[in-house]
Design goal:
Layout (H helix, E strand, L loop, with lengths): L3 E12 L2 E12 L3 E5 L6 H8 L7 E6 L2 E2 L7 H7 E4 L11 H13 L3 H14 L15 H13 L5 E5 L7 H17 L3 E4 L3 H7 L2 E6 L2 E6 L1 H6 L4 H8 L6
Parallel strand pairs: 3-8, 3-9, 6-7, 7-8
Antiparallel strand pairs: 1-2, 1-4, 4-5, 9-10
């Protein structure tokens, strides 16, 4: 079995008197796809932001290949290069073209030559069906196209772990499929991913392991089959019943 690459131990995240994450423990193995679901406000997105140091934590430890992720540490930017994150709001630079958006970080942060960065970017854009959009600005793209650009832009940094935070939440239903297809193809490649989503059919198709987060705690976890077909807790049963889930 693959070795663990990401470890979370006793993670506590508070905002003043509000505890959002309450002693969460989780490990992720290389090549594993972990999908986190749960009700709104349960701490899912905050958890992802803690994983790459976007949020500081009050207690606990997060390590990537044994190296501690510290939101106040001098090595944070180096660690962040190894953990890519894609947000539901795309976060593309509006004044730069698709190609410029994709090559900026590799050139400025990783020191890749502009020629090599552009060559890789064009390959990735062709893979997701957006090569013809390389010189377009984000405002000229559909939501689904912008999200696909955001995903492949994250891949340009060659992350060891990819975090995906509700990447279809801002999309019209007809655009969701084109984005999910890209993620499913990454899973088939053996990419290590931690995904927060409300798309349960997609979660079942892509996950190696499912997690229900509620009240800042992991309530239940298991394989997709166990999770959807044989839930152990009443909380998971109730959560699944709230969705019109179709196999």
């Amino acid at each position: 079995m693959s070795e663990e690459i990401l470890q979370v131990s006793g993670l506590v995240k508070r905002y003043e008197d509000l505890t959002v994450l309450d002693r969460v423990d989780l490990s992720v193995r290389k090549g594993e796809v972990v999908v986190i679901v749960g009700p709104s406000g349960c701490g899912k997105s905050t958890f992802l932001r803690c994983l790459n140091g976007l949020e500081n934590i009050q207690e606990g430890r997060i390590t990537l290949d044994g190296e501690t992720i510290d939101s106040t540490g001098a090595k944070l930017n180096k660690v962040r290069e190894r953990i890519g994150m894609v947000f539901q709001s795309y976060e593309l630079f509006p004044h730069k073209t698709v190609l410029q958006n994709m090559t900026l970080a590799p050139v400025k942060v990783r020191g890749v030559s502009k020629k090599d960065a552009e060559a890789e970017a064009l390959q990735l854009l062709e893979r997701v069906g957006l090569l013809s959009k390389k010189d377009q600005y984000p405002s000229r793209l559909s939501g689904g196209q912008r999200q696909r650009v955001a995903i492949v832009r994250a891949l340009m940094m060659h992350p060891e772990v990819l975090l995906l935070d509700e990447i279809t939440a801002a999309l019209d239903p007809e655009m969701v499929r084109e984005v999910l297809d890209v993620v499913i193809s990454l899973a088939k490649e053996g990419r290590t991913m931690v995904i927060v989503t409300h798309e349960l059919a997609f979660a079942r198709a892509v996950a190696d392991r499912m997690i229900l987060l509620d009240g800042g705690k992991i309530v239940e976890e298991g394989s997709p089959e166990e999770f959807f077909e044989h839930p152990k807790t009443e909380r998971l049963k109730k959560f699944l019943e709230s969705f019109s889930y179709q196999e």
